[in-house]
Specification:
- This protein has about 260 residues and is an alpha/beta fold.
- About 35% of the residues lie in helices and about 20% in strands.
- It folds into 2 domains: about 110 residues, Heat Shock Protein 90, CATH 3.30.565.10; about 140 residues, Rossmann fold (3-Layer(aba) Sandwich).
- Helix 1 packs antiparallel against helix 3.
């Protein structure tokens, strides 16, 4: 849910380059009150409304398609991730927009009568890390989401959008005496150097580098057999802070 809200806020902010009002509203509703085709029951409805430029009618049906974007930068996976997360939570999503007047995105997810469950990690000491991490992903919203997760855990984060830039940043950090403790490479960069080739070049120069491969395509052979390709771990999109934390914890234990 953190990634859903974060991605929607990023899109709203980008739609209002000259500023505006962003409204976020939450309501407890039932399945009859929200106009979605949902199973009977109680739901939490969240609405994110901006005063931006709006979305043309011909684009509304495609905004949640992977890699569809009207922006000059980014892959469009941010909104696709929102759609996937809501669907996995048995929820529904609705977008209303008017060109020149803004956009309203609302989603509904099943409400619970129980409080949050305590996980093993929440009962004990939460994982904390330190050092610098390099994140390479061509989608600015994913860069920002993952950066916030890593910063919450305790890391300093540097981001870039292409494998060639990642190699340059890694070299500069190593030569400057502030090497990256870990690197996270997106597997697929349309029109650029992706994670697999960047990894091969990186290991030739820095065989001790710890690198995590990231992708929204969990069926990829590289994701399934990441160690055979030189990676230390793999994390699938859409990210959750628990999965990211666990991957970093396991690498810390191995290194120790």
């Amino acid at each position: 849910m953190s990634q859903v809200i974060n991605n929607l806020i990023i899109n709203a902010k980008q739609a209002m380059p000259e500023g505006g009002i962003l409204r976020i509203r939450m309501d407890n509703v039932d399945d009859h009150a929200i106009g979605y085709q949902l199973r009977p029951g109680r739901y939490l409805k969240v609405t994110v409304q901006d005063q931006g430029s709006g979305i043309p009618a011909e684009h509304l049906e495609r905004i949640f398609d992977p890699y569809f974007t009207t922006k000059s930068a980014g892959s469009g996976l941010g909104l696709a991730s929102v759609h996937a997360i809501i669907a996995k939570h048995d929820g529904a999503l609705k977008v209303e927009s008017s060109v020149g007047f803004g956009t309203s995105v609302s989603f509904a997810i099943p409400a619970s009568d129980c409080g949050p469950e305590k996980t093993e990690q929440s009962r004990g000491e939460a994982f904390r890390g330190s050092g610098r991490i390099l994140v390479m992903d061509d989608d600015p919203s994913i860069q920002e989401t993952l950066s916030e997760m890593l910063q919450l855990i305790g890391y300093d984060v540097v981001t870039c959008d292409d494998g060639r830039r990642a190699l340059q940043l890694y070299r500069e950090a190593a030569q400057g005496g502030e090497p990256f403790r870990l690197t996270i490479l997106d597997l697929t960069i349309p029109g650029g150097l992706g994670g697999e080739l960047a990894m091969q070049q990186l290991l030739q120069e820095y065989p001790e580098a710890q690198v995590i491969v990231a992708s929204g395509y969990s069926e990829s052979s590289v994701m399934a057999h990441y160690r055979e390709h030189g990676f230390s771990a793999a994390i699938a999109k859409p990210y959750t802070i628990s999965v990211v934390s666990e991957a970093l914890r396991s690498l810390t234990v191995e290194a120790g």
